[in-house]
Amino acid sequence: MLLLAAAGRTIAQDNSLLNALNDSMAAHKGRSYVSGTFKATHIINEQTIESPAQGNLNFVIQHRFGQLNSGSYNFFGLDNATLRLGLEYGITDDLDVGVGRSSYLKTFDGYLKYKLLKQTEGGGMPVSVSVLGTVTNYTQDNSSKPFLNTKYRTAYSGQLLIARKITRDLSLQVTPTYLHYNLVPTVADKNDVFAVGLGGRYKFTRRMSIDAEYDVVPKNQVVSTTVHNSFSLGWDIETGGHVFQLVFSNSQSMVPTQYLTQTGGTWGKGDIYFGFNISRNFNLRKKR
Amino acid sequence: MKFIVSAIIGLVFICPSAAFSQRYSTRNAFVGFYSKTALEDIKAENNQVFAIIEPGTKKLAFSLLLKGFIFPKELMQEHFNENYVESDKYPKANFTGTYTGDVDLSKDGVYKVVVKGDLNLHNTTKSVEAPATLEVKAGHLIGTSEFKAKPEDYNISIPSLVRDKIDKEIAVKVKIDCPITK
Known about the structure:
- The complex is a heterodimer.
- Chain A is mainly β.
- In chain A, 10% of the residues lie in helices and 44% in strands.
- Chain A has one domain (33-283): Beta Barrel (Porin).
- Chain A has a twelve-stranded antiparallel beta barrel with strand order 1-2-3-4-5-6-7-8-9-10-11-12.
- In chain B, 16% of the residues lie in helices and 49% in strands.
- The interface between A and B is large, with 38 and 42 residues.
């Protein structure tokens, strides 16, 4: 009995220093933010709460082939391509600025994204919230409508990105969106449109995830053209400073003022655009 | 019988506190690791390491939060936590061990010692032995050490695509400056 007690004591003593340290660590615990809610700055078309860190530049290539149902003559869409090239730069860890150019309607876009709230580990703040403001301007010639000046071609979007990393693998994001068009096709169409995006990712290995995104535009806002909700699926592969995303979507455009209100095709009929997003991170700051 | 039981309880509870003697500890010790390859240099430093030394028993311990390692490149730091050490699952790394060699606490001086113990990282424990110095200076115990660690020893898998960018053996530097606590 004494021997047992003595043996027990020796073990307890071996850990006593570490226990003292762990007690001290628990007493001096600081606040820690959740990291890696999403791998990339886009779920598929929609932006995520993530942004490049201060002094980091992201080069984003978003590419969509033609529609899968466009037939063997068009090699099931692979003959056609729509491309968006984008740059985004972290002014601070919380604020980033981006510019882009899409071949779809020859569109320029610019945006500012700011991290308002950051999810903390172990309670405290349950969600991360970023606010995103985007301006888009399409420049494609339209000889039948010479009155289309710069103002008429400009549209705006304001988005609140609300995300939560629920487990280490599963993250979800809700994105209420307000869109404003300086010009709409008919008087029946609304200049101010409300939409909401639902997105998420599930990591099935440490470096790969499946993403899905569904963007809902409630009825009676865009009436002159048939608009379908945008649904996209993606597969993320992360390798060092690159993130590759293979995507399928019924939206052809990749800017919010277009993919939300100009998605004419449906998955059921095979109006699906296959494509990919590639993002490459460059660290422009030497020291921090 | 009652007397024996209470005597044992007394022994168990009283004796360790009698053996406590002096402890030196800090919450701001330093651990850094460095990887050098032809393709990329990686460094990460943590200045919030908890350390404790008990000269009476020649025991020492370290504990740190892996999220406390600061990398010059933010993205590298995220990948370190997310993909390599999985700090959400295993937030801490710690070391417990002993040192050999006599250190005279009563006068200032530098002593060469050998530290031996168990390093726990990524839910894997591995024994480590490294030469170190312990310096007695104005009531502080200052320790420095350097050793090598292999990521694979701690069950940290590195994809073949980036294997050449990370040194096979990572240099680890430790520096602690502990004032006396009790």
